[in-house]
Every structure is written in C-alpha cells, then in structure tokens.
Specification:
Blueprint: E1 7-14, E2 27-29, E3 43-50, H1 56-73, E4 80-83, E5 89-92, E6 98-105, H2 110-113, E7 145-152, E8 155-162, H3 169-183, E9 224-231, H4 233-243, H5 254-260, H6 268-283, E10 291-299, E11 317-325, H7 326-331, H8 334-347, H9 350-362, E12 376-381, E13 399-402, E14 411-416, E15 424-431, H10 432-439, H11 442-445
Parallel strand pairs: 6-7, 10-12, 12-14
Antiparallel strand pairs: 1-6, 2-5, 3-8, 3-13, 4-5, 7-8, 9-15, 10-11, 14-15
Helix pairs in contact: 1-3, 4-6, 6-8
Keywords: Transferase
Organism: Buddleja alternifolia
GO molecular function, one term: transferase activity
Length: about 450
C-alpha cells in the first residue's frame, strides 16, 4: 500500500474579499447550542475530486480567490473567538483570516483512496486535514477555518476544518457549497446565511471552564478501525418496509399507511439507524441488563414555532437520546427498535427543544466526546446534507470523507451515496474486535452493498 504521508509545500492566510456584508455586528455571541461544543474538535470534512484541467498554479490561484469570496459572505468564519469581561464567549468578526495549505502526494491515486468495499478507510485521509485533535476552544488564538488542497497523482482532495462551536453540519456544508459555487464563477451567492441571534438559543447563562481555561475532552486512546458501509436505495427500502411491519402485525402498504397518518411511518433513516443499533449491540457482547443508548442529532430549525430560517448560521441542533437494555434490543425485532427511535424523534418538538434550552441554562456544561461505558452508539452528520453539490468547476466529487477529528468507538457518520439515488454511506468507527464481528453479522451485512 502506498505511503499515507503528504508534503506541505505552502501555507498562507486568506482574508475575505472586500464586500458589503449583511452582518452588522462585530461580535456574535455563542448560543446554547454553540457553547457545549467548545470541548469538541474541529469538524473535518472534505471531497475527493477528479483531476482538474488546470495547472497547479492556476488551481491554487482559483481556490484562494474563491475562498476569499466565500469568506466575504461568511464574515464570522474569518474571525476569532473572544471571551468578554462578562464571561460570555463571542465570535469576533475582525477579518483575521483563515489558513490555507497546499500539499502534494503524487504517490497516491484514486485507486489507493477508493479501495474495494471490504477494506478499511485508508489512513491517508487523515493527512488531508489540518488542526488534528484541536479543540474548538482554541479558536480564541487560531483561525476558525483551515483549508488544505492536496494534489494527488490523478485527483485532488479539498479538506476543510471548521470550528464546531461556530457551525453545525448545516452551516458547514452551506459554507463549503458557497466555496465551490465561487470557484464555478458565480457572481452571487445562492444560499446566503442568516446571522440572527434573537432566537430561543440566545442565552444569558455563562459557561465556566475548568480552571478558567481550555476545556478538556477525551475520545479514548483505544485502537480503532474505520470503514464505509454502503446501503443502496433498494436495501434501505427493504429495511423501511421491515421496520414498518412488525411480525405480530398485519403487513401494511406504506403508501396507505402514509395517507392514514404520515407521522406513523418510520423513516428510511430511522430504519437504518435501528439496524446499526441492533447489530452493534448484538456483536458487542454486553451484559443483557446493561443500558445501551443511541444518540442522533436533531436539526431544530424546523422544529421551533415559529421555525428558524433554514440557513440560520451556527449550531441549531440537539441530541435525541434513545435508551433500552441490551436484552430489549436483542429480544425484540427490528421494528421495535426502529419504533423506539421513531417515537423519540416525533416527540422532539418545539416544547422539547425549549425544555432542553432551559435545562442547559440551569446547569451550563460542555459535551464530552467518548464512549466511556462501551454501550453508546452515536450517529452524526446526515445523508440530507448537500455534500455532492461541491462541484468546483470540473466535476462532482468522487467521494466525501472525514479526518480523524471527533472519532471514538461507536460513532458513525452518515453521508449520501455518491450516485445521488437515495443510497447512504455509513462511516463507522469501532474497536477492532467489534468491527470484525460486525463484518460477520449476517443481519447487518445482508443489506450492505
């Protein structure tokens, strides 16, 4: 296998192109959804693209200019974090700029980075991103964004690391899409972000950090394996039908079920999550009486009444926690597990979101990264994110991949399949023994392409 090392050949700071911004505030206060993320690491996501029909110098110039234009529409990302005398943490929109790295790895080819489905994710992807193991709190002193262009033998990879206390997945991919849109020569932004801070997530609560300084988090130091499991649209539809039809019930035709009560239908993604929860629990060799938890993010923008703008900038998500004993997960069928997830998703309405905000304000706290009891499974990202819309002018991405940030035993990231046909790629991270057992789990693998 080819070496995973890359050579960094240049580094510079990119500043926003002069532009009359829609943002009036020089300080944007972090919200109830932003603050807990200060103990997490920077988001690291990127796209593998075909070889561009440009020289290296022209490609570099195009990306630098496009990034500058994109930043002019996202001025907070060119700033720094700032803790005021009142204890509140703000984004200081001061145009300090972002880091841009150029790297070369001519020994790596598409065939090295997109191996057969039975192989683990190549370690080379980890070297395509900056700010490894960097906590979001570090945004007080380092840029909130770092972009790395890695030129390969027959392709390029554009990796983007963004402070997760400043953006969630929705805002991250809107910025990435805008970056690509500028590279395609657009003179206007098609999806401008909304920088309002007068929503329910705005808070007067102050988060106190351990020792008054940088927070500490842990994702564990156990050896991990990372692997992509691809689920075709047809396989997911089979799962959905199975999840919506318990063996103890009369089979339903999904179309009729939707007409009768749209909220009664378990979704495709909930069905897939149920399969993952049930399968990883089964191969984990856990005590039947132990409680296992499945965590999935809920975009709160449309759950609020009135709803937030779809392109509200910042973190606007909460975690939905579903719990059951190991015995319950294994004794009951897939439809029972899927319904457990489904009911909790349905219950996460405006009132639930607001209760979550009040609960955090009574006890401001940081999120902790890790699977400390070995019984937690977490789903992150979403197959609804427009990851494959990142055409920089010479073709759509061949693949979407992440770096090593925010990885621990039991976490999975959901990506849309590259075909855009409703397929889903799950990027699963597990300890070695559990991953090996999952690869041999017949119920799980029968749905994997």
């Amino acid at each position: 296998m080819a070496s995973s090392s890359v050579d960094i050949v240049s580094k510079c700071t990119i500043y926003p192109e002069p532009y009359k911004s829609t943002i009036n505030e020089s300080l944007i206060k972090l919200s109830v959804s932003d603050l807990p993320m200060l103990s997490f690491q920077y988001i690291q996501k990127g796209v593998l693209l075909p070889q561009p029909p440009l020289s290296s110098a022209d490609l570099l110039s195009l990306l630098k200019l496009s990034l500058s234009k994109a930043l002019s529409h996202f001025p907070p990302l060119a700033g720094r974090l700032h803790t005021g005398s009142d204890g509140h943490v703000y984004i200081l929109c001061n145009d300090s700029g972002v880091d841009f790295f150029q790297a070369k790895a001519p020994h790596l080819s598409i065939s090295d980075l997109l191996p057969p489905p039975d192989c683990d994710i190549p370690a080379a992807y980890r070297s395509f991103f900056q700010y490894d193991n960097m906590l979001n709190y570090a945004g007080h002193s380092i840029p909130l964004v770092a972009v790395q262009l890695t030129e390969l033998n027959d392709a390029v990879f554009i990796g983007c690391s963004v402070n997760h206390a400043v953006v969630d997945g929705t805002s991250f991919w809107n910025f990435f899409n805008t970056f690509a849109e500028m590279a395609r020569g657009s003179n206007a932004i098609s999806k401008p972000p909304v920088f309002r801070r007068d929503a329910v997530f705005d808070t007067t609560a102050v988060l106190t950090f351990p020792g008054g300084g940088s927070p500490v988090t842990s994702s564990g130091d156990e050896p991990l394996r990372e692997k992509i499991f691809r689920f075709s649209r047809e396989a997911i539809m089979e799962l959905k039908i199975r999840a919506n039809n318990s063996p103890s019930q009369k089979p339903q035709i999904l179309g009729n079920l939707v007409k009768k009560n749209p909220r009664a239908e378990i979704s495709s993604f909930q069905s897939l999550c149920a399969l993952l929860w049930r399968s990883v629990t089964r191969v984990g060799n856990l005590d039947p009486n132990k409680t296992t938890t499945f965590r999935m993010p809920a975009n709160c923008r449309h759950r609020l009444e009135p709803p937030l703008e779809p392109l509200y900038f910042g973190n606007a998500f909460q975690r939905i926690l579903s719990a059951a004993t190991v015995g319950e997960i294994l004794f009951n069928d897939l439809s029972w597990v899927a319904d457990r997830l489904h009911q909790n998703v349905l219950a996460h309405d405006d009132a639930t979101v607001r209760r979550g905000v009040k609960d955090w304000e009574r006890n401001p706290r940081l999120f902790q990264l890790g699977n400390f009891d070995g019984a937690t499974i977490a789903m992150a990202s979403s197959p609804r994110f427009p990851m494959y819309d990142n055409d920089f002018g010479w073709g759509v991405p061949l693949a979407v991949r992440s770096g090593r940030a925010n990885k621990c035993n039991g976490i999975s990231y959901a990506f849309p399949g590259p075909q855009g046909d409703g397929s889903v790629d799950l990027e699963v991270t597990l300890v070695h023994d559990t991953m090996a057992a999952l690869e041999n789990d017949s119920e799980f693998m029968q749905y994997v392409s």
